[in-house]
Specification:
Largest sheet: 5 strands, parallel
Helix content: 25-40%
Order of helices and strands: EHEHEHEHEH
CATH class: Alpha Beta
Distance between the termini: 38 Å
Number of strands: 5
Structural class: alpha/beta
Bound molecules: adenosine-5'-diphosphate
CATH superfamily: HUPs
Length: about 150
């Protein structure tokens, strides 16, 4: 059976830390679906369709990496797309506390869904979408932290 992993996130924006998780994930899984979860309550800094296009640009030519967006529960989207694994990245204990409870809920909602965590590569550990948004908002150069040009 094909091992398909869903890498869900806000990706507002997608960073070099995220790219690293995807590329390392391709060594474990046959296919990775990167999907931006859309939450109408949460205002985005970077437009969702723009970000989908930018992520696609990063992995063009790699047909085992798919980029999409979704509005339903992550577990339901995974199930609908044949993904048995959720791929997530861990930078620190704050990530762990948050990820731990989401992983349990997702497993509870859909028993076939295993969450697999990759520990961040140290050189990307300080990169966060929140900080990039702040820097970008004030006109700072964020090109070092993202794997595409804005
Ligand atoms: P969410 O809003 O679902 O937390 P994010 O886009 O912030 O989505 O992050 C998606 C995933 O990528 C999460 O598992 C997060 O911990 C992980 N992640 C974020 N930044 C990094 C990084 N620099 N290195 C490794 N993993 C990261």
């Amino acid at each position: 059976m094909k091992r398909i992993a869903l890498f869900p996130g806000s990706f507002d924006p997608f960073t070099k830390g995220h790219e690293d998780i995807v590329l390392r994930g391709t060594q474990i899984f046959d296919e990775i679906i990167i999907a931006i979860g859309y939450n109408s309550q949460k205002k985005r800094h970077f437009d969702i369709d723009y970000m989908v296009a930018k992520i696609k640009e990063c992995f063009s030519g790699k047909d085992n990496i798919i980029v999409d967006k979704y509005t339903e529960l992550t577990a339901i989207y995974a199930n609908r797309n044949g993904a048995n694994y959720l791929l997530r990245g861990l930078r620190n204990t704050t990530d762990f506390e948050y990820e731990n409870s989401i992983a349990m809920v997702n497993k509870d909602l859909y028993n076939g869904l295993e969450t697999v965590f990759l520990i961040t590569s140290p050189k990307f550990a300080f990169i966060s979408s929140t900080i990039i948004r702040e820097v970008h908002n004030y006109g700072g150069d964020v090109s070092k932290y993202i794997p595409y040009t804005l």
